[in-house]
Amino acid sequence: MEMSWPHQHLTRRRVLAAATGLTAGAFLPPGPALATAADYTNPVIWQDFADIDVIRVGDTYYASASTMHYSPGAPVLRSYDLVNWEIAGHSVPVLDFGAKYDLNGARGYVRGIWASSLAYRPSNRTFYWLGQIDFARTYVYTATAVEGPWNRLTTISTPYYDAGLLVDTDDSLYVAYGNTTISVAQLSSDGRSQVRTQEVFRTPSSVGTLEGARFYKINGQYYIFLTRPANGQYVLKSSSGPFGPYTMRQVLLDLRGPIPGGGVPHQGGLVRTQTGAWYYLAFVDAYPGGRVPALAPVTWTWDGWPVVQLVNGAWGTSYPSPAVPAPPRQVTPMTGVDTFDGTSLKPRWEWNHNPDNTKWSVDDGLTLRTATVTDDLYWARNTLTHRIQGPTSTATVQLDHSAMRDGDRAGLALLRDSSAWIGVKREGGTTRVTAVGGLTMDSSWNTTGTGQELASAAVPGGRVWLRASADIRPGAARPGVFSYSTDGITFTRLGPAFSMGNDWRFFMGYRFALFNHATRALGGSVRVTRFELSTP
């Protein structure tokens, strides 16, 4: 959709019409008073949400992010002020792109949902998600509400790498995509097929690689917002239509970011508030925690180029909060307690690959039945993950292990390509709480270590509380510490601190993970009655 310069006169009617497709002259009731602008602090979300696409529909902001091999994929975040966010749903309900996403004879680690696009089409009041999978083809999903249901609209044979979807002012659909060579495709009016595709820009060798396209029409001009991984941002502009020609300008390069030890803010997207102010929601490499969103205001030059507003020559650690209407409600916190009430998982949870849905259930508590016989956690199905909250946070799980069988392993992991866990081992009819380290993968994501026991202790009764504390401040390897309790009050540390690596090549950051797998035979189960994510 077309957006206008902030220095133009913008009535509330014009702003909302541009965002929601209201016709000229439509009656709008008086708007709510704008919220007072206190300062916000970066990162606005200290959790792993990368390759962000951000849009506004009316008074609500939405963002989408990469999830690689986690399922469901492509979370949709919601905010009313660009600062406080909640997870509303997922655009890709299941990764049905091949057996490797089921951990069935193959594995999909670091494949799956890469940089993709989220858009809203006012003409049919529908959200669109578009992304390529495995460099093979592109998938389009749609929904009339971000909570879902999301359904696959079509599959397109052209893989639109790092795509940005534009709904033009005449309702046409365009996609900007590519790595170094940037192309634009036009889709059919129903969004189901490609009508045309054309190369529109080739990145100069002096710049290097450009990718991560976001596509906009602003004041009649077309913009393709591109990242230079992982330290720069550039923008292409065309005054002659979506197929160019385009000229290029640097937006930022090697800019000091807002997180000590973290990287340069880059990728992400531009969004305009109801009052015409512009913001850039980027992400910062902040391993071991992952890539976390940071927000900065944007102004425009007289001739139509975006400029990120800096603080002392850097992306600010704080800025005045966007002046927006007061939110209709408070968003759901990304931390706190989950007792698995109801009969479905909350959208904060994602599985490591697709689960076997016959082996888990939610019914005022989470039951995990063993789904795989393996001594390798990386091959175990139905491992349920939760992002770690930075800069430090603690996950505590209440686990009923009374239905475990001999050879079963269940517990709480710090999961990545180098992992460790605390959990329960059932052997010879006895149960011990155990700390295990040395779970490792190589750079091709093949298992190189299935773990070694570091410490253990007898655990009486049928339930135990497990705790993992994680420090994900970037810039160095950071400690993860495990402990357990038999009463939920007094916790005893178990084993040495685990060193969480800060290498970027796995892309996704460390996660807390709940698991239960067999090493001998299926049939056992555990029940998680409480999960708490807390910060100091």
Q: What's the topology here?
A:
Blueprint: E1 2-3, H1 12-20, E2 39-41, E3 53-57, E4 60-64, E5 70-71, E6 73-79, E7 85-92, E8 117-121, E9 126-133, E10 137-143, E11 151-156, E12 164-167, E13 173-177, E14 181-187, E15 194-202, E16 211-218, E17 221-228, E18 232-238, E19 247-253, E20 266-272, E21 278-285, E22 291-300, E23 306-308, E24 318-320, E25 336-338, E26 349-352, E27 360-362, E28 366-369, E29 384-387, E30 392-400, E31 409-415, E32 418-427, E33 430-441, E34 447-458, E35 463-471, E36 478-485, E37 492-493, E38 498-500, E39 511-517, E40 525-534
In short:
With 536 residues, the protein is an all-beta fold.
Walk me through this protein's architecture:
By secondary structure, the protein is mainly beta. Mean pLDDT is 93; it is low at 4-32. A hairpin with a 5-residue loop joins strand 12 (164-167) and strand 13. The strands form eight sheets. Strands 25, 27, 28, 30, 35, 36, 37, 38 and 40 form a nine-stranded antiparallel beta sheet that branches. It contains one helix and 40 strands.
